[in-house]
Amino acid sequence: MKSLILACTAIALACLPAFSADKLEVSSFSSVLTEIAEQVGGDRVEVTAHVKAGVDPHEFEPKPQDLQRVSTASLILLSAKHMEPYVDKLKESTGAKGKLLEVGDQFPSLKMKAGGHDHHGHAAPAAKKKGGHDHDHDHDAETVEDPHWWHSIANMQRAVKVVRDALSEVSPEDKKAFTQNAAAYTAKLGELQKWTKVKVAELPKDKRKLVTSHEAFQYFAREHGFTIYAVEGLSSANQPSAKEVAELIQLLKKQKVKAVFAEAIQNPKILEEITRETGAKLGGSLYADGLGEGPASTYDGMYRHNVTTIVDALK
Amino acid sequence: MRGSPLLRALLSFLVILFAGYPLWRLTDTGPAAAIALPAETTVAEARSLSIELTFTRPPTAVTIQHLGQEVWKATSPEETTEAQLTLPYPGQGIELVFSVAWPQGEMAALRASLRDPDGQTHERSVWGEGETTEVLSFP
């Protein structure tokens, strides 16, 4: 009997590393895509979050250990729409093994001004040239693709399908599980969309004016009927000119906007100064560039925080 | 410098005037072309609205909310019920949140037919099962 137990234990222990090794390795360079990969992949995948929640993706540069991890991954997820200027490094390091998926490039883009986004490293044509991208840039001299696609829940649902299909391609035997997981997560996003519509309906249509420090919320604005006013140069990297500040003050007064919003990763000091001049209040911080920390470390939490902050401040 | 002091003063004034205009243009804080200012916020007056509700199956309860406030409510309404509301109806229309509680087990629908202050009728539908909440936009 003892020998039987020992044999069973030995077999079980031998199987453990095999299960772990069987898991699909996924590398993610977006906190939002990390959540999608974990939700869709379930226990079939092991996701490495290179850009963690609360980290500014614009400031992120992959380190040697990131590249090492990427080289063994079966699937590499990028937010794209030119969000990751280091994409060539990743392509070189992956060789032919992993499938590199630029998720945001799979659905339509809104445009944003190039000038206000130099700090992204993906915006100005000159900056891109320095980065050495070899893929096609769909923009003209003044506008670039807005990379903040995840602020549209409809885009999130599209991204879930893209990730589901990519995982199924890499591991066809798990297709059924990926499909079920994707359907469950899509349904959760549907609930979030319903909640958002009800919350936004608390605001009269003529108060749906979103003044932020850069154009990160265009996808959100289009989906929920907001007009967005982003003032260039109010990011942590660029100081606004006196003319830009004066324009914003005039805009706020004319539109009777009750609040302006800072972004969680950026410095709100300049907005605080503007609100002092106008009487509009600082509506709070929004998560513009990905998931945050604490309750905002999930997509649902991040989105509910942003919607509640916006609606409650503008009422 | 010769000439009458009055003439000299006039010449100085003209110089300041001509130099002042480009300076004013350079420092003007008027709206930039990039930011188009839409119409200012206006407050719409409260007006009388009539909504006819038709259910495929009578619900156990139905409420209507406007701007986060409950403005109408009925318990076990008949298949066709009329709601009379007094609400602001601005040019861009309004959104109403309908919460309907149907018995579980079967899909049901509600048709809301709103007659606006100008006499125009706008129809919208809510489909659901059990507790259903949906935002309807009029017009």
Quick structural gist:
Chain A has 315 residues and is α/β, with parallel strands linked by helices. Chain A has helices at residues 2-22, 31-41, 64-72, 87-94, 125-131, 153-170, 175-200, 218-224, 242-255, 269-278, 299-314; strands at residues 24-28, 45-49, 75-78, 99-102, 111-113, 143-145, 209-212, 227-230, 259-263, 281-286. In chain A, 47% of the residues lie in helices and 14% in strands.
Protein topology:
The complex is a heterodimer of chains A (315) and B (139).
Chain A: H1 2-22, E1 24-28, H2 31-41, E2 45-49, H3 64-72, E3 75-78, H4 87-94, E4 99-102, E5 111-113, H5 125-131, E6 143-145, H6 153-170, H7 175-200, E7 209-212, H8 218-224, E8 227-230, H9 242-255, E9 259-263, H10 269-278, E10 281-286, H11 299-314
Parallel strand pairs in A: 1-2, 1-3, 3-4, 7-8, 9-10
Antiparallel strand pairs in A: 5-6
Helix pairs in contact in A: 2-6, 2-7, 3-4, 6-7, 7-11, 9-10
Chain B: H1 5-27, E1 46-55, E2 61-66, E3 69-75, E4 80-88, E5 94-101, E6 108-115, E7 121-128, E8 131-138
Antiparallel strand pairs in B: 1-4, 1-6, 2-3, 2-5, 5-8, 6-7
Please, could you describe this protein's structure?
The complex is a heterodimer of chains A (315) and B (139). In chain A, 47% of the residues lie in helices and 14% in strands. With 315 residues, chain A is α/β, with parallel strands linked by helices. The radius of gyration of chain A is 22 Å and the shape is globular. The model of chain B is unreliable at 26-39 (pLDDT under 50). Chain B has a four-stranded antiparallel β-sheet with strand order 4-1-6-7, with no helix packed on it. A four-stranded antiparallel β-sheet of chain B has the order 3-2-5-8, with no helix packed on it. Classes of the chains: A alpha/beta (315), B alpha+beta (139). At the A-B interface, helix 7 and helix 9 of A face strand 5 and strand 8 of B.
Average pLDDT level of chain B: 83
Classify the oligomer: heterodimer
Structural class of chain A: alpha/beta
Largest sheet of chain A: 4 strands, parallel
| Helix/sheet category of chain B | alpha+beta
% residues in beta strands of chain B:
over 45%
How far apart are the termini of chain B? Answer: 74 Å
Radius of gyration of chain A from CA coordinates: 22 Å
> How would the global form of chain B be characterised?
rod-shaped
Number of helices of chain B: 1
Strand arrangement across the biggest beta sheet of chain A: 2-1-3-4
The stretches of 5 or more residues of chain B where confidence is low (pLDDT under 50) are: 26-39
State the major sheet of chain B.
4 strands, antiparallel
The greatest interface between two protein chains, and residues involved on each side, is:
A-B, 24 and 25 residues
Helix content of chain B: 10-25%
Strand order of the largest sheet of chain B: 4-1-6-7
